[in-house]
Amino acid sequence: MADVGSVGGRVAAVVLAAGRGTRFSAGPKLLAPFRGRPLVAWAIDAAGAAGLDAVVVVTGAVPLAAVLGDAPPGVAFVENPHWHEGQATSLRAGLDWCARGGFEAAVVGLGDQPLVPASAWRAVGRSGHAPVVTATFGGVRRPPVRLDASAWALLSGWGDEGARELMRRRPDLVGEVACEGDPADVDTLDDLRTLDQSGTRPGAGESSGSKNEVSEWS
């Protein structure tokens, strides 16, 4: 899988996909069909195609591992039993998995951002020039975010914010890397329809030199 993880040590991709999606009115948001596939599959495939050393998906409200079935090779699932206490608990669950695996950094993205391409995950993963490195899209900071292991203990363990709270509190730790793609996330059914009609092509299958270039989702 890896072709960039060796830059600054072993790097894992962490896809946060534990929330219930209470504003989404058409069933489990992350399983909603988007261009013929479950919404979350686009984010997982993009993370896998980035060429990092591992991919872990943090689940919670919906047992994605059981429902999705045929995940691409090398994708692990970890359950966050405290998902209802906020996104920070899912981030902590993902980082704890990374710590147990001996990873030196994690690139964290969201399962409801289907149009963030593998190139964004890869660019952030390669950018170890600061303890925290965030992607920017058109100059706006959005996930994915690279968190060096040295920053993990500084993160809050509760609440609905992941790395954003640390980035506000410690701007001196934060670097940026400009990325291509559309970072829009899906909160509502209208959001999903708008993205579907946008014509923007998800970038999970772009050429990366990774062994996971071709999606294996059914």
Please name the defining characteristics of this protein.
218 residues, alpha/beta, 7-stranded mixed sheet, two-stranded antiparallel sheet, 7 helices, 27% helix, disordered C terminus
- Structural Rg: 16 Å
The termini sit apart by 20 Å
Biggest β-sheet: strands ordered side by side in the sheet: 5-4-1-6-8-7-9
Strand content: 15-25%
Summed over residues and divided by their number, the pLDDT gives a mean of: 84
- Contiguous low-pLDDT stretches (5 residues minimum) are 1-7, 207-218
Query: What's the CATH topology label?
Result: Spore Coat Polysaccharide Biosynthesis Protein SpsA, Chain A
Quick one: CATH class?
A: Alpha Beta
Supply the number of structural domains: 1
Number of strands: 9
The CATH homology group name: Spore Coat Polysaccharide Biosynthesis Protein SpsA, Chain A
Label the CATH architecture.
Alpha-Beta Complex
Element-level helix/strand string: EEEHEHEHEHEEHHEH
The number of helical runs is 7
Q: In terms of topology, how is this protein built?
A:
Layout: E1 11-17, E2 33-34, E3 37-38, H1 39-49, E4 54-59, H2 64-68, E5 75-79, H3 87-100, E6 105-110, H4 118-126, E7 132-137, E8 140-148, H5 149-152, H6 164-169, E9 174-178, H7 189-197
Parallel strand pairs: 1-4, 1-6, 4-5, 7-9
Antiparallel strand pairs: 2-3, 6-8, 7-8
Helix pairs in contact: 1-4
Describe the protein in words.
The protein has one domain: Alpha-Beta Complex (Spore Coat Polysaccharide Biosynthesis Protein SpsA, Chain A). The protein is 27% helix and 22% strand. It has 7 helices and 9 strands. A 7-stranded mixed beta sheet has the order 5-4-1-6-8-7-9, sandwiched between helices. Strands 2-3 form a two-stranded antiparallel ribbon. β7 and β8 form a beta hairpin. α1 crosses α4.
